[in-house]
Specification:
Shape of chain A: globular
Strand content of chain A: under 5%
Helix content of chain B: 55-70%
Shape of chain B: globular
Distance between the termini of chain B: 84 Å
Strand order of the largest sheet of chain A: 1-2-4-3
Number of domains of chain A: 2
Oligomer: heterodimer
Radius of gyration of chain B: 27 Å
Largest sheet of chain A: 4 strands, mixed
Amino acid sequence: MTTAIDQNEPRPSKATGIVLTVAALIVAVMLTVNPAPNNDLFWQLRAGADILRTHQAPHADTFSWTRTGTQWVAHEWLSFAIFALAYKAAGFSGLYVLMAVCIGATFTGLFRIAASNARVAADRGEVASTVAFLVWLAGVMISRPYFQPRPQLFTYLFLVVTMSTVLSARRMSTPRLWMLIPLFVLWANLHAGVLIGVGVLAVFAIGEGVDAYVERSRRDVAGEMAFARHLGMVAAGGLLSTLATPYSYHIYQNFAATVSNATAMNTVGEWASPDFHSPFGHVIEVYLGLAMASLFFSQRKRRTADVALVLILLYETLGANRNAPLLAIVCTPLIAEHAMSAFGRVKWASMIGPGVAYVLAVATVNGALMSAVSTMRESAVKDGAPLERVALTSIDYAGYPAKACEFVEREQVPAGIRMYNIYGQGGFLIWKLPDHPVFIDGRADIYFGKHLDDVSRMRSMPYDWRSTLNKWHVDMIVSEASDPQAKLFLGAPDWALVYADSPILSDTFRPEGPVNSLIFIRNIPEYTKLIGKCRSDCPAVAKIAGRYRPSSGSGP
Amino acid sequence: MTNSPTTGNDLATPSRFALIVLGIAVVVFVVALSIAPSPAVDLFWQMRTGQIIVSTGHVPHFDTFSWTRNGHPWIVHEWGMCVLLWSTFKAGGFAGVWVLEAVLLLAIFLTLYLLLHRETRGAPLTAFCLTLWACKMSSPLIAPRPHLFTYLFLIVCIGILLAARRGNPKLLWWLVPTCVMWANFHGGVILGVGLIALFGVCDLVEAGMSRSGTSTIGSGPLPPNPAGTGLVKPDLEIGKRQLVVAACCAVGLSINPYGWHIYEIFTQTVGNKTMPSFVSEWSALDFHDPLGLLFEAMFAIICAGLVFTRESRSLAEIATVVLLAHASLTASRNVPLFAFAGLLVTARHIQSTLDRFLSRKGEDRPELFGPRPPSVISVVVAIAVVAVSTMTAVDQMRRSPDRSSGLAKAASTSFALHYFPADAVRFLKTEQLPADWRMYNDYNLGSYLMWSMPERKISMDTQTDVFFGGVLDDYARLDQQPFGWEKILAFYHPDFVVMSAAEPQARLFYTSPRWALVWADTADLDSSGSSNALIFIKNSRENASVIERCRRDCPTLVRHPEMALQGATQ
């Protein structure tokens, strides 16, 4: 750690820095126009509305009929309230603007930190900014799938602030670290990702301590040791500050239960490993290659904390693709310094001037704009004001069973009917059908145990699926044609199809097209009248029934 | 310029005792690992192919096993292994095949162990730990399969490349006969040639950068290790020689019965889009699986080694690690290749990092992970590994339903012979279904069906490259249970179906009124452990009597007649 500002640190050309910063902002905001199913948004809106109405955070589940009354640690309660306020003010447009502002601020800030770190290893500021921009771009691309209106947005933002504070303290020996504590208090009420922030501080503390210890025989390391201790104390303070929530230490129970639940890891898509045959997997590989190449070829001293953070967050990302933005935010500034050092080995590196930076800025802004325009052109949302259309497209609203919900209300399906729904629709059903409690939704932690295990089992389509479903005494099923389970119910004589968005049954998965919701009601005398009425009100059903003749057997 | 070693305690003579004791533990570990059950789905078609080669005196050029691809060109790049498998089976049955597998595995891992011992400058415990780790990472792919030769030859090739860099460039010429031999055992030889060429290109680039004054890859802020590994800094001559040798190897590959066509296998396989979504070992690495976690840990160690080393890094080493990491991420079957190549090229860096962090003040080498670990530690570690390995192997053999003993028991446990549908095959032979009936079968059972019923042609098996294109694509599509599945199947006009209950598409036949279930191994269709074969016959008036007769002869359907009612009869 330097003890004073390095007077020889190159001053970047102001124009280059401004151009790339503006480009970063535009690119980040444009990339938010990206249809990504966000099932959780809807139950969060309902939870937020409840919080605003009752002025207290929820402690027990009221949204499902399967886990009603179960303890619910809504660690993101403050985010829910903010989302509800934004929705109340301007509908989905308001939510989109909130998301765009958060993402824009986060990733513009990230670029600034990366450029600042890269300058440490550069002879010329323009080269540093350009290299930092390229590393940053890779980081943005691995984060893009998670540009959604979710509480994680606050974790991304506060993580950038944390990294900025720690890195500048490390470089300039100005201990402003204590200002992180009030930030952590606020963060703890917005999202449990505050634990990541605490973890990052702890790794920095340990890493700086290890480096100082290893170097102790060669020079005086009193300053570095003091810095490491300071980091440790702030990390401890951060840990304590996470108790300042309506749920206190329960936030840790929730965290531990989540990361240790194998069923959730294998059932919930965003907890799965990245698929390295998909475009997202390819981008992660590129980022990984960039990180490794930077560390291997760098001429700078590799700090233990930096290497540890890269490896730890890489481990987290490989274990769950939802952690990719965390990898990008924490590691991009660290990698930028080494990338600049590695690039500096190349003879012609110093010949890169502002012109390259300007071309890069224009090319990436152009690419991001074209991507946004193309997305809107292909969007299934055709009506509404422009901002509303962008908002509904970015949350893939067409992929939710809005019409099916309207049908349920229109047909006055009894509120007490036990509904089985697929995981990806639960959040929307909570919001759109508040009188019909759900079977399961995106609050996976509430359903840990037998419940989630049964859902996972149903998704594997066992031969005796009825024994799993029947023990819940389900009378109504809300599914969609692209869900494999739908085929079980379509061919079953004990279930009657009563609604379909479209008579064309397709295996295409969202978000490639609008959803084709299906509703089934148990084929028993009690519901004969309801089944008849529903079928007569939904012409699509007759066309599908003609193609699907259920088998006569009742199964094992 | 050569890195000359200096005198010092880092030249302490490596402990031969520790090397031998830990080596024995490696042997026991490898043998025990080879007993771990894994259905040998490829073994049967490979033995049958070997039988054909031995009896006819020439290799096959066209498929003759299937009715879907009958007459299609077929490149049996692993013909040497097929002959070896058939010969050992003929001599000693499945026990003979298992012994062959064990011998190959010992050759692989002992070679790796000794080379790692050399690369770590005689640190036996480091070499031991890394070898065991590589062994564990290879365990999902340990089977009597031709790729074992790829593992062996890959290790040998890298050993030669590294030895050549220690002032013995003429050793590189040994790569040519190695690759020629390799080309007749497995198409993975292309990887070996690629690696040699990669070394050549990287060394030329690095030498060129040194000449132009650009700071070289290896230099960095850390002081160089004065007692280096004796590695010669890459120069133009070594780089050129490696490229020439690579070119000779590339030409030498065509010294096989198929000539240059062997390259087609490579381009077809890596270019096929269906396999990754369908064949588990070609799918992306899953980091929720033990294999993914083992890979991560090894990747972290290799990276830490490269980052913190005091040795100069070479571009060839880094390129090898990066490319094989990519290969592993995209196909889990490449993980052992990453383990072998990655460890060999970075072992000296890992050791350098260990030396840096674990050495006491004033010493260059640590005690435990240095050349002379305490004998007591070596013995305790070896005994622990031997004990756990032996207990695990004994437990696995005890759990096997097979009633044989000795080597036969080891073989049947290792190859999971109980998995294969022997009862279903006996049933088919008894019922004497018409010889011209087309059998549509499970991908994983095809090899066994072809072996057990050579008079019948199969629809597909694990000779996957033969089925690239429509057949494989349609099979993979049916596994997704699409809405229009009957239209896809209608193209093939099958008359009966043999499928494992665990295969996703089995549910299509089970619930369809157009197919009649006539055989099930057991009634519990959701159980795992064996294939639980199901046989369906096309449900038509012409087949009604056959269906009825078969159902009467199936014990499971007699006890559970409701299973036959899943589809409505016409």
